[in-house]
Amino acid sequence: MKVIILMIIAYLLGSIPSGVWIGKLFYKKDIRQFGSGNTGTTNTFRVLGKPAGTVVLLMDILKGTLATLLPSLFHVTNINPLWFGVCAILGHTFPIFAGFKGGKAVATSAGMLLGYSPIFFIYSATIFVVCLFITSMVSLTSMIAAVLITLSTVILPLVWPQILPQHNWLLTIIATGLTLFIFYRHRDNIKRIKDGSESRIPFGLNSKKKR
């Protein structure tokens, strides 16, 4: 019963629609009515600007982190904490507080990694930043980074155990599922990438191409 209650709490944490609440409270805007219509970090940056986008990014990461730490905080040792991170990701993607229409799971997934292994989180964040600098597209970066991070869950324990000491099959399975889900959630972005109309950030190697 304790595990079930904590999983529900994890889902509710993930369900907090950071972008929607920040937009309505401080900017009198519903970001679902602007830009891509998404409730996540990228659209918040696009619609509300850098300060709001940064706050939403941190909040979305924190949701995944807190959820993953719940079993440690409440002394639950008979279940892998990654499952609580997954509950938060489901909440972020299908939030009960926002009509079950949420974000694309990238930031909250990163928060889950932070709660699970801070060193692996830093490694994963580095991959994301490097890919973002190269592509100048958050959508493409999210998909590439997801693939590389998933592969890393298998390779790192063999070649760089200082970052990931041992192979955790559950981490690999969850990462694989999230990668497939991230690709699915970015299917419209994939179409825009193919036709050259995908939005780009104003820095990076390819930032001067069509935005």
Beta strand %? under 5%
State the helical fraction. Answer: 55-70%
Structural class: mainly alpha
Low-confidence stretches: none
- The radius of gyration computed from the alpha-carbon positions, rounded to a whole number of angstroms, is 17 Å
The biggest beta sheet reads:
none
Choose one word for the global shape: globular
* Mean of all residue-level pLDDT scores: 94
Task: Please outline what is shown here.
The chain is built from ten helices and no strands. With about 210 residues, the chain is mainly alpha-helical.
Could you describe the 3D structure shown?
It is globular and about 45 Å long. Helix 1 packs antiparallel against helix 4, helix 3 (41-48) packs antiparallel against helix 4 (50-73) and helix 6 (106-116) packs antiparallel against helix 7. Helices cover 68% and strands 0% of the residues. The chain starts with a helix and ends in a 16-residue tail after the last helix. With 211 residues, the protein is an all-alpha fold. The longest helix has 24 residues, at 50-73. It is built from ten helices and no strands. The model has no long low-confidence stretch (mean pLDDT 94).
Feature tags:
211 residues; mainly alpha
Topology:
Elements: H1 2-15, H2 18-26, H3 41-48, H4 50-73, H5 82-93, H6 106-116, H7 118-135, H8 138-159, H9 169-185, H10 187-195
